Amino acid sequence: MYGNDFSAPGEAPGEAPRPRPATADEPVSFAAVIADDGRVEPRDEMPEGYRRTLVRQIAQHAHSEIIGMQPEGNWISRAPSLRRKAILMAKVQDEAGHGLYLYAAAETLGADRADLLDQLHSGRQKYSSIFNYPTLTWADVGAIGWLVDGAAIVNQVPLCRCSYGPYARAMVRVCKEESFHQRQGFEILHTLSHGTAEQKAMAQDAVDRYWWPSLMMFGPPDDDSPNSAQSMAWGIKRFSNDDLRQRFVDMTVPQAEALGLTLPDPEIRWNEERGHYDFGDIDFTELFEVIKGNGPCNAQRLAHRVKAHDDGAWVREAASAYAAKQSARSEGAA
Amino acid sequence: MRDWPLWEVFVRSRRGLSHVHAGSLHAPDAEMALRNARDLYTRRQEGVSLWVVRSSDIEASTPDERDSFFDPAADKIYRHPTFYDVPEGVEHL
């Protein structure tokens, strides 16, 4: 899954770093590592803006992973077969794992996981807008795996070369696991699209609903993406939003043909001159509305997350109490 | 959870290889740290053995002193076999 690291225009960018020129006030050792395309490691000197940008991006990414468990978790109890159920449980468990890899990476920058969760729960930090859409049918589980995880992979593969070592290493693990996620989604849709007319219609409906939101996962157009230049200069981001989006479209159009499904954009056609697929304009007002909290499921996702956290408090307390008791016992025996 | 210590996780991917740092996690005690590490870092048979070490127990060299700390090795190139001239035709040396 993937966390979008951008705000709607005019929206107070909660934890956003102040934009700053790439070369001012940077520790010499940091500038040298970046210039050399090397990796910055946790205890190295780094500009405060770099640290804050990374904490914000990694936290949003981590939040997206754990919130992303909900739309799919919604279908575990209703998966159509034991095979599908086992696969879906493994996938949702992976998302939890991805969240933990990323929280651990954020903590190497001095952030505290409990604080980051507080900021998610109080709405001060965001998660990917894609998870504010509902999963209405079983086919949506397929569409999420194929399109949402597919878009996530396109975004995340370059992050494996991110200048911050712990983030890059976490992304290597995540990317390895995402390819199973994407294939299982593709397989679900392939099965449905080669089933009855009703099943095929269900698959088409899911693709119709998830296509545009998936394209929006790459963020606003480059002209409208104020923090991108600084992130590129720092080696956090390697490709622009529009370049990644184009890569995703180019990858996905032939896959849709293999599925026998139609992408809901009449303007998609191969452009011989560019060597890419052209596609229609994206309605970004929808994206910004969802980011602002006005998507179909924003309130539900956050309420569920907070409830799960609160309901789990006794487990955390019991584990602490047990650890304290064991520790007291071993001291008593010594 | 706020006061659970941080643990560093090391995974031996197969027998014959050494343990390699995989990441970190929070857990109230060593036993839970091991169980969590299994669930987090070896879901796909990535390991045959796990170590967990409290992060606070690790003593590390400081990045700032990197140069002076590792400098003594820099001027001893005679420690490398490539330093030595070997006459043409001499083998197995």
How much of the sequence lies in strands of chain B comes to 15-25%
- Sheet with most strands of chain A: 2 strands, antiparallel
Radius of gyration of chain B: 21 Å
**Most extensive protein-chain contact, per-chain counts:** A-B, 29 and 22 residues
Put simply, the count of helices of chain A is 13
Give the overall average pLDDT of chain B: 90
What's the rounded overall pLDDT mean of chain A? 91
Q: In one word, what is the shape of chain B? A: elongated
State the secondary-structure class of chain A: mainly alpha
Biggest β-sheet: strands ordered side by side in the sheet of chain B: 2-1-3
The biggest beta sheet of chain B reads:
3 strands, antiparallel
Your description of this structure?
The complex is a heterodimer of chains A (334) and B (93). Chain A has 334 residues and is mainly alpha-helical. Helix content of chain A is 63%, strand content 2%. Chain A is built from 13 helices and two strands, in the order ααααααααααββααα. In chain A, strands 1-2 form a two-stranded antiparallel sheet. The radius of gyration of chain A is 21 Å and the shape is globular. Chain B is of the alpha+beta class and 93 residues long. Chain B contains two helices and three strands. Chain B is elongated and about 65 Å long. In chain B, 18% of the residues are buried. Chain B has a three-stranded antiparallel beta sheet, with helices on one face. At the A-B interface, helix 4, helix 7 and helix 13 of A face strand 2 and helix 1 of B.
